[in-house]
Design brief:
This is Aspartate aminotransferase family protein. It contains 14 helices and 16 strands. The protein is an alpha/beta fold. The strands form three sheets. Strands 4-10-9-8-7-5-6 form a seven-stranded mixed β-sheet, with helices on both faces. Strands 11, 12, 13, 15 and 16 form a five-stranded antiparallel β-sheet that branches. It has a four-stranded mixed β-sheet with strand order 1-2-3-14. Strand 15 and strand 16 (418-421) form a beta hairpin. Helix 3 (69-81) runs antiparallel to helix 11 (317-332). Residues 59, 117-119, 122, 145-147, 218, 222-223, 251, 253-254, 279, 290 line the site of 4'-deoxy-4'-aminopyridoxal-5'-phosphate (PMP).
């Protein structure tokens, strides 16, 4: 039964939360979490009866929306038959989820190691790469987010790593391409691509190729701003990895499972990594699940020698049953194709039209259901609407933008000077248009800071 609005219950939920829940990435006394009563499809609502269209898909994970009846039923059925079982056994939900995922992943990424989410998938991918190569270092991009556990936060570029960056984890960062804020003084995508590859190859040369286990990249960086790599970049990185015997890890935790209008973002570029991490969309986040898809060559390393790593809940049957149901629903309902079509025909033209009218929009970029508006003070200089990693007063323009969107019944994804348009992949055309209209009103508030 779906919980209905009830302010008294809402106040009690909020009071217990404030008393006892310690929230992620937050100064505990400076936050005011919304008490959520229920959710369905592309919407959720609070206990006071306010309803929000979720343009953030939670944290970019509810790819098939909230409470899809077939996935809820599959979880219930799994709970009734086998709620849990230890990872060393073969269990139907787990083997079927692995089979379906391997069928979708590119190339020979045919073995699946299951984790509880994205960060631990990154931890294990990097461990596999180090053991496979016998080398210590990992190269990662400045504009990236790979998770909140120790190794994952160390390879992250996002400022959230600063407070816990040990600086000793064998991580070297480099600049990946991003023409709008080019570090390479490039004026075209082709120049950006060529110079970014030159920069990466010289980083490899100066670090010493024989010391580098892996290069990790988000196929399309998500949290850092949805920057589609230029044509030729990822195949260029693939070639460098082959040349120097480096394991190529693509992190598809956010971009994978239909977000880009293809099953994986790697499909957009025809590139196959050696290891691919996933989570979120694999089961729409209904039960925690992530994993690493492993190439034949790396799987072979651990064919006769044990892989030294594991998790109590690796491939938890409830999470895997949710994945099987999600992947089947996505195929049956043509959700990936829908994301590509609605993205190209409604979201993209809608965002470009908003950019024409709102001077605060510096750039619109993305694909499928994976879009960012880069908000600026000045289109000519591209100065961001708020400074890098702005907090408190410095972030007031983005806070005002988010408040205005919520007032319009839209829950936006906001990070630094950007708002990301990342709705459920099966959002309807009417819902998408409703969201764009709300964004229009909220951008007028951002425009006041131009
Ligand atoms: N990698 C990427 C690309 C992500 O976007 C995220 C989460 N936003 C993670 C890893 C970490 O995933 P989790 O929060 O499930 O640990």
């Amino acid at each position: 039964m779906t919980p209905q609005p009830n302010p008294q219950v809402g106040a009690a939920v909020k009071a217990a939360d404030r008393a006892h829940v310690f929230h992620s990435w937050s100064a505990q006394e400076l936050i005011d979490p919304l008490a959520v009563a229920g959710a369905e499809g592309s919407y959720f609502w609070d206990y006071d009866g306010n309803r929000y269209l979720d343009f953030s898909s939670g944290l970019v994970f509810t790819n098939i929306g909230y409470q899809h009846p077939k996935v809820v039923a599959a979880i219930q059925e799994q709970a009734a038959t086998m709620t849990t079982f230890a990872p060393a056994f073969a269990v139907e939900a787990r083997s079927e989820a692995a089979r379906l995922i391997a069928e979708r992943t590119p190339g020979d990424l045919d073995k699946i190691f299951f984790t509880n989410g994205g960060a631990d998938a990154v931890e294990h991918a990097l461990r596999m790469a180090r053991l496979h190569t016998g080398r210590p270092k990992v190269l990662s991009a400045y504009r990236s987010y790979h998770g909140g556990t120790q190794q994952a936060v160390n390879v992250t570029g996002d400022p959230r790593r600063w407070a816990s960056d040990t600086g000793t984890a064998g991580v070297v960062r480099f600049w990946a391409p991003f023409l709008y804020r080019s570090r390479f003084y490039a004026e075209t995508e082709a120049q950006e691509c060529e110079r970014a590859l030159e920069h990466l190859e010289s980083t490899i040369a100066f670090e010493g190729p024989s010391t580098i286990a892996a290069i990790i990249l988000e196929t399309v960086p998500g949290t850092a701003g949805i920057m589609l790599p230029p044509e030729g970049y990822l195949s260029g990185v693939r070639a460098l990895c082959d040349k120097y015997g480096i394991v190529f890890v693509l992190d598809e935790v956010m971009a994978g499972f239909g977000r880009t209008g293809t099953w994986f973002a790697a499909d957009l570029y025809g590139v196959t990594p050696d290891l691919m991490t996933f989570a979120k969309g694999v089961n729409s986040g209904y039960v925690p699940l992530g994993g690493v898809a492993i190439s034949g060559a790396i799987a072979e390393t651990f064919a006769k020698r044990p892989y030294p790593g594991g998790l109590t809940y690796s491939g938890h049957p409830l999470a895997c049953a949710a994945a099987v149901a999600t992947l089947n629903v996505m195929a049956e309902e043509g959700i990936v194709e829908h994301a590509a079509k609605l993205g190209a025909e409604v979201i993209e033209p809608g965002l470009r039209e908003l950019a024409e009218r709102h001077p605060s929009v510096g750039e619109v970029r993305g694909t499928g259901m994976f879009w960012a508006l880069d908000l600026v003070r000045d289109r000519a200089t591209r100065e961001p609407l708020v400074p890098y990693n702005a907090a408190g007063e410095a972030n007031a323009p983005m806070a005002a933008f988010a408040a205005a969107a919520k007032k319009q019944g839209l829950w936006p994804f906001v990070n630094m000077n950007r708002t990301h348009v990342v709705p459920p992949l099966n959002i309807t055309e009417a819902e998408a248009k409703e969201g764009l209209a709300a964004l229009d009103a909220a951008l007028s508030v951002a425009d006041e800071h131009v």
